[in-house]
Design brief:
alpha/beta; binds NADP nicotinamide-adenine-dinucleotide phosphate; seven-stranded mixed sheet; 23 strands; Aldehyde Dehydrogenase, Chain A, domain 1; 2 domains; 478 residues; Aldehyde Dehydrogenase, Chain A, domain 2
């Protein structure tokens, strides 16, 4: 049994109250984590406050050097990151290697290199020069969900510290293992104490205490839209800098000229990667009526053949959902889909795996047709391996249907004509759209949503701008 401690002021601090961490693939306990409270957050804030002056006094280049050291030390432990992430979340090990482990290393390396070019800007007037400098904001509160644990935590910690802030991070209590590994790495490389503090526990206690703390100047939150609203209600009147990366109900649009055989694996990946537990997953699939009869049976057949099973096995394409409570929530949407008149084309039930996975939170990948695109199943975020599929007549109708939710995070368009795909993409009301691909990430580009999917952008210069204050100094020519 792993025993995890908070990491505050460069030390691992035990807690007398603990929460259990469960492996969702077989229901076994894997770790105890601190059930922290407001006092632990206070302690972390004191540490972050003490470290602020000396850390912010370093140059960006000096801080980038530390990011490089963290990236190197994480890379050595890549296989361990993948195993822990798979154990904690139930995701397939191949995915944890390809996405979670590699991106966590890449986030530190990328922001370390990218920040070196994020320089002061100068604007000349006839009689004066403006110098725009970027100062740290102060203490950053970073709150992250369970679906991509270290990937998302490192996506916030790296830009926050390279811009000279000190941080208090709260990972999801469902998936604390790799945040603990990161604390070990930070300890081992000798990052100055108090720069990164990790406090484990419940969102309602630790998360809320971070958002409410008057000395925390900035909140970067990734999670559900309902929680994001609560965070905003507290942080906004305190005038904290706020970034909200929230839920999605993303459209996948398959136009009539798409190459069906080539498109199906991409559409299935967009629908079911990480058991559909990626905020960017395409869970509403719109298919042109002209190709519907050809596309749908082939797509159903492809999805039926996706291999679901032991997350630690190299050939599993789908693993368990993150928890039993979440599996029950996703299952309740399958029942809702049936009540709303939907037809389950495949999946809809537990896969009936052998022991010990018969006790796991598994659910077959599920495709539902016959629902209105305005039904609850087709408009509410399910965040699991459930997609709805709908026919459309024209590109215009596909765009209207795609825009019919309160969310606006991502989307994808599949077509034989990339110019036509781009024209459709421009009309979709989301922060990101891919054409003939999905989750194809360049870390320099803006990442974030519109409508109920969030406020603000992270990624590249948007992250560096968010984690700093742009100050203008106007000097009159002598
Ligand atoms: P969640 O329930 O909103 O939780 C996110 C984080 O917030 C967790 O660490 C949670 O702690 C914490 N939290 C809960 N209540 C809080 C409060 N009152 N104050 C401060 N923090 C609080 O979301 P989730 O179920 O973990 O993650 C799934 C959601 O995240 C989905 O909606 C998904 O779309 C979204 N997501 C969005 C993005 C994006 O980039 N837009 C990326 C990934 C995921 P506990 O775990 O202890 O509750």
């Amino acid at each position: 049994m792993i025993k995890i401690h908070n990491f505050i002021n460069g030390k691992f601090i035990a807690s007398d109250k603990n929460l259990e961490d469960i492996n969702p693939a077989n229901g076994e306990k894997i770790a105890y984590i601190p059930n922290s409270n407001r006092k632990d957050v206070d302690l972390a804030v004191q540490a972050a406050d003490s470290a602020r002056e000396s850390w912010s006094a370093l140059s960006i280049g000096e801080r980038a050097f530390w990011l490089g050291k963290i990236a190197d030390a994480l890379e050595i432990r890549s296989e361990e990151i993948a195993s822990l992430e798979s154990l904690d979340t139930g995701k397939p090990i191949s995915l944890a290697r390809a996405v979670d482990a590699s991106r966590s290393v890449a986030n530190f390396r990328f922001f370390g290199e990218f920040a070196k070019d994020f320089q002061q800007e100068n604007f000349e007037m006839d009689d004066a020069t403006n110098h725009v400098i970027f100062k740290p904001v102060g203490i950053a509160g970073l709150i992250t969900p369970w679906n991509l644990p270290l990937y998302l935590l490192s996506w916030k910690i790296a830009p926050a510290i390279v811009m000279g802030n000190t941080v208090i991070a709260k990972p999801s209590e469902l998936t604390p293992l790799t945040a603990n590994l990161l604390a070990e790495v930070i300890h081992e490389v000798g990052l100055p104490k108090g720069v990164v503090n990790i406090v484990h526990g419940l969102g309602s206690d630790v998360g809320q205490a971070i958002v409410e703390h008057p000395k925390i100047n900035l909140i970067s939150f990734t999670g559900g839209t309902t929680t994001g609203k609560k965070v905003a209600e507290i942080a906004a009147p305190m005038f904290k800098k706020l970034s909200l990366e929230l839920g999605g109900k993303n459209a996948t649009i398959v136009l009539d000229d798409a190459d069906i055989e080539a498109t199906i694996p991409g559409v299935a990946r967009a629908g079911f990667l990480n058991q559909g537990q990626v905020c960017l997953c395409g869970s509403r699939i719109f298919v042109s009526k002209k190709i519907w009869d050809d596309f749908v049976p082939k797509f159903v057949n492809y999805v039926k053949n996706m291999k679901i099973g032991d997350p630690s096995s190299d050939d599993s394409e789908l693993g368990a959902l993150v928890s039993f409570a979440h599996r029950d929530k996703v299952e309740s949407y399958i029942h809702l889909a049936q009540r709303e008149g939907g037809e389950i084309l495949c999946g809809g039930k537990s896969p009936g795996l052998d022991a010990p996975f018969d006790k796991g939170a598994f659910l077959e990948p599920t495709i539902v047709s016959g629902l209105s695109h305005l039904s609850r199943t087709a408009t509410e975020e399910i965040f699991g391996p459930v997609v709805t599929i709908h026919p459309f007549e024209s590109d215009k109708e596909a765009i209207e249907m795609a825009n019919c939710t309160d969310y606006g995070l991502a989307g994808s368009v599949w077509t034989g004509d990339s110019e036509r795909g781009k024209r459709v993409a421009e009309k979709i009301e989301t922060g990101m759209v891919w054409v003939n691909t999905w989750l194809h990430r360049d870390l320099r580009v803006p990442f974030g949503g519109i409508k109920n999917s969030g406020v603000g952008r992270e990624g590249g210069r948007w992250s560096l701008g968010f984690f700093s204050e742009a100050i203008n100094i106007c000097v009159k020519n002598s």
